[in-house]
TrEMBL record:
Domain called HTH tetR-type: residue spans: 13-73
DNA-binding interval(s): 36-55
Descriptive protein name: TetR/AcrR family transcriptional regulator
Keywords noted in UniProt: DNA-binding, Transcription, Transcription regulation
Lineage top rank: taxon: Bacteria
Pfam families xrefs: TetR_C_11, TetR_N
Database matches in PROSITE patterns: HTH_TETR_2 (PS50977)
InterPro entries listed in its UniProt record: Homeodomain-like_sf, HTH-type_TetR-like_transc_reg, HTH_TetR, Tet_transcr_reg_TetR-rel_C_sf, TetR_C
Record carries keyword Methyltransferase: no
Length: 200
């Protein structure tokens, strides 16, 4: 049975939840390079064979962890205005990155992606899905006349979260509501000015 077809509340779903929880704990505590499927199985209280058969590699397990995080993410807001939607997006990113567990997980996964190709692919896929979910708020703003025609919705959404991830991973400056609002407002202002309008 593949991920996404498991029966909610069934044994397969419970095993997956336990293994992903254990993998996340191990990733936060020890880092990607020390992840071990046998140790994760022990932490989760499931058989090693089950873990090896279902995931096979640490990278595949991390990819499934990202899938699970995407599934649990809050749906896109629809406030009726561009700035309202972008602020909602920024505050969702803020809540995720400042959550004690989720923030630590994202740090560890981003570090892992720098040295593991499969994890990097899984991380890109995760963000592509999240950006695609939020892109319609920009497209709606174009249709309302708030933004120039041809504005690249993907780039606008990226511009909202990029400053927050910079604070998380590089500058380690405070991540707070003011930073989230500023990121949303800067992205909206740049979009209105045509900075993300596609040409040619």
């Amino acid at each position: 049975m593949t991920v996404g077809t498991v029966r909610p509340g069934g044994r397969t779903a419970r095993v997956r939840a336990a293994v992903l929880q254990a993998a996340g704990d191990a990733l936060v505590e020890d880092g990607f390079d020390k992840l071990d499927l046998a140790e994760i199985a022990r932490r989760a209280g499931v058989g090693k064979t089950t873990v090896y058969r279902r995931w096979g590699t640490v990278a595949a397990l991390v990819a499934d962890m990202l899938d699970d995080m995407a599934d649990q993410s809050t749906p896109r807001a629809d406030t009726g205005s561009l700035i309202g939607d972008l602020r909602a997006n920024a505050h969702l990113v803020l809540r995720t990155l400042t959550d004690p567990r989720q923030g630590a997980l994202f740090r560890a996964i981003i570090v892992a992606a720098a040295c593991d190709a499969r994890t990097a692919t899984a991380l890109r896929t995760f963000y592509a899905v999240r950006i695609a979910e939020w892109a319609p708020c920009v497209e709606q703003a174009i249709s309302r006349g708030e933004l120039p025609a041809g504005t690249d919705a993907t780039e606008v959404i990226r511009a909202v979260s990029a400053p927050l991830y910079y604070r998380l991973m590089i500058s380690q400056e405070p991540l707070d509501p003011t930073a989230a609002d500023r990121a949303a407002e800067a992205a909206a202002a740049a979009a209105r000015a045509g900075a993300y309008a596609q040409t040619g």
